[in-house]
Amino acid sequence: MQIQWFPGHMAKAKRLISENLSLVDMVIEVMDARVPLSGDNPDFDRMLGDKRRLMVFNRSDMADPAVTETWQEYFKSKGIPCLFINSKERKQAMQVATAAYNIMADKIQAQRDKGRRPQPVKAMIVGIPNVGKSTLINSLAGRAAASTGDKPGVTRGKQWIDVGNIQLLDTPGVLWPKFEIPAIGLRLAFTGAIKEDVLDIAELSIEFIKFLQSQYPNCIGDRYGIQDASQMAPLDVLEAIGIRRGCRISGGAIDYEKAAALILHDFREGRMGRLTIDRVSDVEDFARQAEELRLEQLNRGKHAKNQPD
Ligand SMILES: Nc1nc2c(ncn2[C@@H]2O[C@H](COP(=O)(O)OP(=O)(O)OP(=O)(O)O)[C@@H](O)[C@H]2O)c(=O)[nH]1
Ligand SMILES: [Mg+2]
Questions:
Q1: What is the pLDDT at residue 177?
Q2: Is the shortest distance between the CB of 155 and ligand 1 below 6 Å?
Q3: In the chain, at which end, N or C, are there fewer CB atoms within 10 A of the end residue's CB?
Q4: Ligand 2 centroid distance, CA of 183 (Å)
Q5: What integer pLDDT is reported at residue 309 of this predicted model?
Q6: What whole-number distance in Å separates Cα of residue 87 and Cα of residue 94?
C-alpha cells in the first residue's frame, strides 16, 4: 500500500513556517512518542537550519513505557535534547516551558548582563498533523487558546499565544511530499496523522493487524476476545472483529470497512493499551532501506542515460 500525500495547504504551511522563522528564538518540534522515527519530518532539518530546537515526544501516555525507555536512551546517546510527555497534563507541559527557557538561558543572561529586562522567549511549535501541538500550547496557557481536535488538519493558519514569559507560535501540521519507505506512510496513517480520505481503511487495518500480530500478539485477543488471533490470517481477524462487534451491512454480511475503522479508532483512542510502533532497531533498518532505494534510483538514472534515443 503506497500512501502519497502532499496537498496544497501543506506547501502553504511550510512557507508559513519558513517565513516566520526569523521572528522566533527557537523551535519546539512536537512528535508522537509512538512513532519517534516514522514521525520525524526530514523537511524540518532543511527548513529550520541552525535554529535552536527542542524535541517533545507527546502522547507518551499512549506509548509502551518499555519502548519509550529505549528511545530515551537512544536520544541521550545522540546528545539530542528531548522530553517525553502527555501534553494534556499541565504539569508535564510545564516541563517544556522550563526546557525551552534553559535552551535560551545564555541569551536571557546576556540581556540581563546588559541591564535589560529579558524579553519573552519566542518559540515556534512545529510538527506533523495531529500530534498535539495545539494541545501543548493550551496546557501551557491554561486555557483553550488554540483549536484542537482528534483529526489531522485542525490548525489552519498561524496563531501567537502568550503564556507568560514565553510567546508561542502555533502552526498547522506538515508532512513531507513523499514517503520513500512505504512503512513510514503506513505507520503515520495508523496514528491518525494522515487524513482518512486518501486512505483505504480496510487495507490499512490489515497492515495494522499484521503489526499487532508481530509486536503485540496478545493485544487483539485481549481487546476483542478472539482466540489465537496472532496465528490467524489478518483478513480473518478483521472478519472476526466484525462478527464480535456486530459490524454488518444490510443483508447481514460483514461490514469490513466498519470493522477496520473500529480497530483503528480503538488504537487511536488508546483503548488497546499502551503501544509503540517504531523501535530503535528500525533506525538502522530504515537507513538501509533508504540507501537501497537511493542506489536503485541511481542505477535507474544511469540505465535511462545509456538507452539510445
Ligand atoms: N492521550 C493524549 N492525547 C493527546 C495528547 N496531546 C494531544 N492529544 C489529543 O490529540 C488530538 C490532537 O491534538 P491537537 O492539539 O489538535 O493536535 P495538533 O498537532 O495541533 O493537530 P493539527 O493542528 O491538526 O496539526 C486531540 O484529540 C488531543 O486531545 C497527549 O499527550 N496524550
Ligand atoms: Mg493544531
A1: 87
A2: yes
A3: C
A4: 25
A5: 61
A6: 9
